[in-house]
Design brief:
- Chain B: This is HTH gntR-type domain-containing protein.
- The structure holds 2 protein chains of 2 kinds.
- By secondary structure, chain A is α/β, with parallel strands linked by helices.
- Chain A is 41% helix and 14% strand.
- Chain A contains 13 helices and 14 strands.
- In chain A, helix 1 crosses helix 13 (409-418).
- Chain B is 58% helix and 6% strand.
- Chain B has a 3-stranded antiparallel sheet with strand order 1-3-2. In chain B, strands 4-6-5 form a 3-stranded antiparallel sheet.
- Classes of the chains: A alpha/beta, B mainly alpha.
- Chains A and B meet through strand 4, helix 2, helix 3, helix 6 and strand 11 of A and helix 4, helix 11 and strand 7 of B.
């Protein structure tokens, strides 16, 4: 009997990438492969719960542990800024941290890959790990951020939140971005050279895989590229949603038959308890039911209105499926889940590709964008009501959702990976 | 349907479930006769309510009436996840749920009087009293001095699940190693039958309700069999309370299937008399059931934090 082929998946330490890979791994398992997860130490247990073996990399840099309160304060300040302002306060330091992680992970990752002997490696990250390129087996890049991560003259700069038409704002952002990330980029290129890999062009930290690249970019939001991606090595996934446990809706104290609205800004977004409390204060007067993801800060909410239910962890796709509106931060996983189930998005971005997805949702008519902080009660109420009442948008989303479900993104992704073996 | 009739129907559904528990525990199979008198004795009621409860089971095609009187079991009880109470919940059940929900959301305090709850829910005095008695039976409320009732906030707080796991880790493995532990062979056989059925299911068709029933029955069996009445009482009370009050943990089917296998492995060691091994497996099982997810995750977020102060 032949042993199933081991496929090592290595998602970055974010829920979006991790859970996107879970969907593909579920499908790989059904095709007879043996998916295993290489994960960051904090993600231990997340993949085992879905039945996958997991191999955490050793805790990196634990001697220089970050102060929890300081981290939260710094990030909360940065999240109030525009994408242009965030280049200095958030994007630059984040790239520094990402490059640090890649350098620190190299040796343990190389050892782990030698031990696992995978037939293929799947990387869902924004930075290159040379041990993967040097492992001697096919490797797959998953682009689970917005499509803007792959640059093109007709695509707005990554993380800029700019409109789809080129303009001086594109140029301004790109110049400032290149300058801010240059030190991290130099360190990355030096590191790549040490590992025998070619340098990356300015501003880029990860190359396309010569074998296979999977883009989590549904048709409805896709850009028309000036230089189309090579279809032999680039596969667009029109929806890629994992199989999850059902979510029985909780009993609400009031408005039991009203429209359900899901509010989730991811674990980083849940940090701003006062902002979410302010939103809940507005929800209290609205004739809808709200499920609000408050992350680990549940006990900070002393009083919750009758039409609001707080959650800390839940199988998000199973809730999105039952919602009439999804208020989120524009994380690509959340955005794609909303599209997959035909649910309009109200996006309140605060960082990274959330800005790009918020702009894109508005431009292609699958949702609206409002500033995360510069809103009044009336603005929030109007945005919610108008999205719920927009029958044309709902029909467009329903038609698109039907196509997304028919396209079986996870199956397409898994088959493309297995075909490499 | 008036409130009293609803309440009576609700009691009959509860009794019908009790009958199913008895036949499951006895390992009865499809086609077997259900003796009314024996059931009445086991359930501590007269034959009249037993007949009403059997009629409910007949209406749901779980039993069939015999031409010459009496009922036959029409299903395999091991594969039956439990009865749904199709009656509108009695007012006290709705109040029970509303009190827990509102306490958890901070809409009411943990110290209440019958009058204050009557005002909040616009309910009759007897309905509030009944709801409080039910909460008290489930160890979720207790009488405080004067007219006060204290609702146990800790049992439904954000970290109730983590604290419950901590408590179970201390007690359940220990219960398996107590010198008075007695194996209940027929209950084990019947449980194993249900677990075998679960084991034959796929991830997509997994019966979560049947799993929940066997999970509860399994942990209750350990509690009841431990041979120490104090330990037994504490664990039984804890399992009942967590079933009625803890929020769902939203575990995916794969983990539930794995959990079912762990239950079977523990039962196997109990049957072999390898109680230390069963105890170790129980410790592992409880730890694996405690999902620990990162509190904060994102690009550039460090894996380790230092909490100052």
């Amino acid at each position: 009997m032949t042993q199933p082929k081991v496929i090592a998946l290595f998602p970055e330490a974010s829920y979006g990438a991790a859970l996107n890979c879970v969907g593909i791994a579920q499908q790989l398992r059904s095709l007879g492969a043996r998916p295993v997860f290489i994960c960051h130490p904090g993600f231990r247990g997340v993949f085992a719960e879905y039945g996958f073996p997991e191999y955490p990399l050793p805790t990196l840099g634990s001697e220089g542990q970050t102060d929890w309160t300081d981290f939260i304060n710094r990030h909360q300040d940065a999240f109030r800024q525009t994408p242009l302002e965030q280049i200095k306060s958030y994007i630059g330091p984040t790239w520094d941290a990402i490059v640090d992680t890649a350098i620190a992970a190299e040796e343990p990752l190389r050892q782990l890959l030698a031990q696992l002997k995978p037939a293929a490696i799947v990387l869902d990250n924004v930075v290159m790990f040379p041990a993967i390129a040097n492992a001697g087996v096919p490797w797959v890049r998953i682009i689970s951020c917005a499509e803007t991560e792959l640059p093109d003259a007709a695509v707005p700069p990554y993380l800029s939140g700019c409109r789809g038409e080129p303009g001086p704002d594109w140029m301004l952002f790109a110049e400032k971005y290149q300058k801010a990330v240059a030190p991290a980029h130099r360190r990355m290129n030096a590191f790549l050279a040490e590992c025998g890999l070619k340098a990356r062009p300015s501003g880029e930290f990860l190359e396309s895989s010569p074998f296979l690249n999977l883009l989590l970019s549904p048709d409805a939001v896709r850009f028309e590229r000036e230089k189309p991606l090579d279809p032999a090595t680039h596969v667009y996934l029109n929806g890629c949603v994992r199989q999850e446990a059902p979510y029985p809706l909780p009993a609400f104290a009031t408005h039991r038959d009203a429209a359900l609205i899901l509010v989730s800004f991811g674990s980083l977004g849940a940090m701003d308890v006062s902002m979410i409390k302010r939103m809940i204060g507005v929800f209290e007067d609205m004739p809808y039911r709200f499920i609000v993801n408050v992350g680990p800060w549940r006990d900070d909410y002393a009083r919750v209105p009758d039409n609001v239910f707080l959650e800390s962890w839940f199988p998000q796709p199973s809730v999105v499926e039952q919602a009439s509106l999804f208020i989120h931060h524009g994380g690509n996983n959340s955005f794609c889940e909303a599209l997959y189930y035909g649910v309009p998005s109200l996006i309140m971005p605060y960082c990274w590709d959330g800005h790009d997805n918020a702009r894109r949702a508005q431009d292609v008519g699958v949702g609206q964008r409002i500033d995360r902080y510069e809103w009044t009660d009336a603005v929030l109420k109007t945005a919610v009501a108008s999205l719920l009442d927009d029958a044309v948008m709902r029909q467009r989303l329903r038609d698109n959702a039907k196509l997304m479900k028919q396209s079986h993104g996870v199956a397409v992704a898994a088959k493309a990976i297995v075909d490499l073996l | 349907m008036d409130a009293d009739t609803k309440k009576i129907k609700h009691r009959h559904v509860e009794l019908a479930q009790k009958i199913l528990d008895v036949v499951t525990e006895k390992g009865m199979s499809r086609g077997e006769h259900l003796p009314e008198q024996a059931l009445a004795s086991r359930c501590n009621v007269s034959r009249t309510p037993i007949r009403k409860a059997l009629q409910i089971l007949a209406d749901r095609l779980i039993v069939t009436a015999e031409p010459e009187g009496g009922y036959l079991l029409a299903i395999d009880p091991a594969s039956f996840p439990g009865l749904e109470d199709e009656q509108q919940p009695a007012e006290e059940t709705e109040l029970y749920n509303a009190i827990l929900r509102d306490l958890s959301a901070g809409r009411i305090g943990d110290s209440q009087t019958v009058a204050s709850l009557q005002r909040r829910y616009d309910a009759s005095r007897s309905a509030v009293q009944n709801a409080l008695i039910k909460l008290s039976e489930d160890n979720l409320a207790e009488r405080a001095p004067g007219q006060q009732w204290l609702i146990k906030q800790f049992a439904i707080s954000g970290d109730a699940v983590a604290k419950s796991i901590e408590y179970r880790l201390a007690c359940e493995p220990l219960a398996l190693t107590l010198p008075g532990f007695r194996r209940d062979a027929s209950a084990i056989t019947s449980l194993r039958h249900s677990m075998d059925i679960l084991r034959g299911m796929t991830e997509t068709g997994f019966d979560q309700k049947l799993f929940e029933r066997t999970d509860f029955d399994f942990h209750m069996l350990i509690a009841r069999s431990c041979g120490n009445p104090f330990m037994s009482e504490a664990l039984v009370s804890h399992h009942r309370r967590r079933r009625s009050s803890q929020p769902p943990v939203h575990v995916n089917a794969f983990r539930l299937m794995q959990s079912n296998t762990e239950h079977m492995q523990i039962l196997e060691q109990i049957e072999r008399g390898q109680m230390d091994l069963a105890s170790d497996l129980m410790r592992v099982h409880i730890q694996l059931s405690h999902s620990q997810r990162p509190r904060l995750a994102g690009r550039g977020v460090p894996p380790v934090f230092r909490v100052v102060g």
